[in-house]
Amino acid sequence: MLSLAILILFIPVSLFFLFFFGVYRFIITIILKIKHGKNFYGLLSGADTFHVVGKSSNVVTFSCLMFRCGKDTSSEEFYETCKAIILKASVLKRLQALFCRSFGYPYLVKHEWDIEKDCIGKMKTLECSQKRIDKQQLYTLLNYYCNAPMPKNGKAPFHMLIGTQPVSWKNDDWNYYPVMFRVHHAVADGVSLLRMMVALTTDKLEASKEPLNSFKHEKGSLFVNKQFKRFIDGLERIKMLFLIICLHPSLLVTYFTYKAKDTNILYNTSLARQTLLGVYSEKSTEYVEKIKRIREKLPGTAFPTILIAAFSASLSDYFKKNCVQPPQYITIAIPINVNAAKLRYLRSEDVTIKDLDLSNSYSLVLVRVPIAIGNEVKSEFPVNNQVVSRLRLLNKEFDIIKHSFEYPLVLTDIIPWVPHMHHIGTSLGIMTYDGRLHVGVNVDKALISDQNDVQDITDDIFKYLKILEKEVEAFCNGDLNLSIK
Description:
485 residues; alpha+beta; Chloramphenicol Acetyltransferase; 3-stranded antiparallel beta sheet; 11 helices
């Protein structure tokens, strides 16, 4: 009833402000078009604008890619091959643009970056007794570069750092080289970047061998398709306007009334803006198979929910060690992208560089995650089956709300990390690749000052996945008297 009353009260106010700022935005667009001419790429909108607030260093997403190649491949050959791959991305508009701000609005203008000079570099070399650096040395490098500024005083849209020393990644007869890819989050979200990665490693960008007159034959249909696309875009904007008018009052109620107000040692509005990384990349398909078995025994339980339950138990251990009274719940923000499911069926022939559209098209969902475990018999979190209890509670929360390479390289691992934006100081990145689970945890130094603690949190996720599988097995066999919905 409160939301309905506010809806009726605020609809006229919302209409006035929407009209006022719509006209203001239109005027600003005209001014910027006159100022920049053909170099004006347009005002940022939607989720893109979320990533241009604050310092650029706070909105850089980064990943570590591990490539496998033969022992006869030199570091210079590896560097040149990687450089050839990323240079093809120069055709993408957002990678040849500069983020600007005028009259209070962020926008893009064309900027001819020298990709090879401005956006590609080599990782520094480390002294090592053997020909390969070990994993700990690699993690030290990753920590160093994740806190380093982006090139050109932070204005470069992306930065690719190519390793020149092989890493002791697996005990086999191959060389493994790291590549760290850093990109401003306003360029694209993770789904778009993965599509770009597939396109870069498979698309040769060959010139068409069709006769020149074939373009004339298709020109009419292309014009019709463009007009139809404009019509559909217009309908989408009308729909979005209607949703804003209807949902804006409810958003105000949610923001000021029901917004999470966490107080714990992992929440602080004053961050150091220096990140510590935790890394775990499994070498077999063991943990992905565990999650699949848990899902089979608990129908309706989602893959991410199981991982978050293990993450919850891992965080609980950290809270027990470092504070007197752990919180009962903490709130986490989960990005939801409806296009993510399509990645499971993405084939190399389905995406090309020329047709790729980089964008941010996700929403954030706030979810309460259980932390504290009680010792009482009637506790909501019985200590003898703590992980499966977390899973039950998370299910309630969610109810409410390889690879075709044309190069002598094989991408073996993708380890993701999520940037710290808007005073979020702890992030969890999850990636399944080649049937294996890869997890990256990064925490601001103002919250956790010891890198070993961050790594322990990361490692314990996998420990609690093992425990969760055993508890689910016991539950399904009737050994646990627990109601999971």
